[in-house]
What we know:
Layout: H1 3-22, H2 29-44, H3 48-52, E1 59-61, E2 68-75, E3 80-87, H4 102-116, E4 130-132, E5 142-144, H5 147-160
Antiparallel strand pairs: 1-2, 2-3, 4-5
Helix pairs in contact: 1-2, 2-4, 2-5
Amino acid sequence: FSISERKRIILSLKIDIKSIISGTFEGTNADRLGILALTVALRTGLNTTPLLELSPNCLTPHPFKTNYQILTTRKRRSNSIFQTPLESQDGESDQISVKGDTLSVLGWAKNQALQLNPDVPDQYSDRLWLYIDSSKQGKGKIACLTESTLGNAKNKFIERHNLKADDGEPLKIN
């Protein structure tokens, strides 16, 4: 992304995150989690598969720095484990934001997943991005963010904010 495109994305994510926090977000539960996942991807550079396969236990305390945690991700094709240090904002809270505290976004998603924990199907037991499905075919069931649902959330995000690339074409977010 160019600097101006990135600024437009961040501004739009801020708007959506504020509406998620205030409870005024107009979208499905998958759309809400999709916004949070996009925020984490933007801040960490994670690709789709490692992002979607994050576990609720993906964060561990940093061994030396008290205001850091380690984000552990896995790449399937290379069978590699990656550890990324993430700095916590001062005054850790339940608030989520775009501007820097990826830990708060991940913590919010983890809390949502833990609230569903007793009812989580086995296939999603080690997934972070869980939500109550509101689609016609899955209404009320626990679901996990997938490439398809993340793609739908991303497309709705681009459309909702009328995001354009510098050349005036609709913005493409990979």
